[in-house]
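Dock zinc ion; give full complex structure.
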Amino acid sequence: MLKRLVSDAPRSVMAPLPGIAVRENVMGRSLYSRTGHPAGEVLLEHYGRRVSFAEGRNEEPDHVMEIGEDEVFLASGDLDDYVNHSCEPNCRLQFEPDGRVFLVAMRDIAPGEDLSFDYATTTTRAGIAAFPGWRFQCRCGAAGCRGEVGCAEDLPLERLRYYAAQGALAPHVLHRLGPLLALG
Ligand SMILES: [Zn+2]
């Protein structure tokens, strides 16, 4: 399949806010807020080389993030690699029309909180088929933990609707699940 060419030329990436840092905890490395952040604040930019599923397959699954139809980010080596999953996240991804992806606070975040988004908001069944390691046992500890991190198609409809209302679903996920959300 002919893919559009995406330049790997360096361009400026938004610097993460100074109130954000990485720490080690029982879950491994995680990004957290030192200072607290208000809902709606743009916290950092997710970036990395953009490649097809096939090109990303040799990478560690947790170093690859689905960002479009047959398109993934490879790890950037930067802070955005350490944003963990939660089934009740405090952040969401925001996809800009030019392809840039940002992490945005979905509610007020208190000092000391880990930053998280729901990986299923940007993961499709096709993505899981290409990267089976993306389906894993969840230990996020949230009261509403689903027990397993999977894809958007597995989300309960109410959760999908909540994320849609928050603008938290990736465009390629909305494209696939939009008709479902429009029902009743
Ligand atoms: Zn969970």
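Observed: Residues 106 and 166 are 8 Å apart (CA to CA).
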